[in-house]
Design a protein that fits this description.
3 strands, three-stranded antiparallel beta sheet, mainly alpha
């Protein structure tokens, strides 16, 4: 097992930038705020895209990886559909803004997603003997993550659409 400092030394600098961004965004979510709709959608779109890119770039050669991703994405979508709490989000369609209550959930979620992806990616590089099973886990988690955020985006889109439209 390599020294954790060596693992950190070989981590690309952009990974630390991503971690800092996720922490900042998660800390901002701790307090209630009003955001433009695009800003609320940004992180779910990034996480969904991350999962879809993983699928697009590596699953072509393996139907097993594709199946793992699809099954996990379906599970993630169902989890989001059942658990996404949007009842406290207030939509202002006239100004294209939403009022969002403060919550620790985004910070916890961001750190969890980052940690799992980082650990799996590092383990794939460090333990080549288990690379096949670790890649399968990585695909499954990417699918779960993408499915969850796609499910959240669909729930939000429905809420936004059902919000009282401004009268002109």
């Amino acid at each position: 097992m390599p020294n954790p400092l060596i693992i950190l030394q070989f981590t690309p600098p952009w990974v630390f930038g991503l971690l800092a961004l996720l922490v900042v965004l998660g800390c901002q979510a701790l307090r209630p705020r009003t955001l433009p709709v695009w800003r609320l959608l940004l992180l779910p779109l990034v996480f969904s895209t991350w999962g879809l890119v993983t699928l697009a770039t590596r699953s072509v050669a393996s139907p097993v990886l594709l199946l793992a991703w699809v099954v996990a994405a379906t599970a993630g979508l169902l989890v989001a559909w059942r658990t996404a709490r949007l009842d406290r989000i207030v939509v202002d369609r006239l100004h294209g803004r939403v009022d969002v209550p403060g919550s620790a959930l985004p910070l916890i979620r961001n750190l969890l997603v980052f940690s799992v992806k980082y650990i799996l990616t590092a383990a794939i590089a460090i333990v080549p003997a288990h690379q096949d099973s670790l890649i399968l886990w990585n695909f499954g988690f990417s699918g779960l993550m993408a499915g969850y955020f796609i499910g959240w985006l669909v729930r939000f889109a429905l809420k936004y659409r059902m919000a009282v439209a401004p009268s002109v």
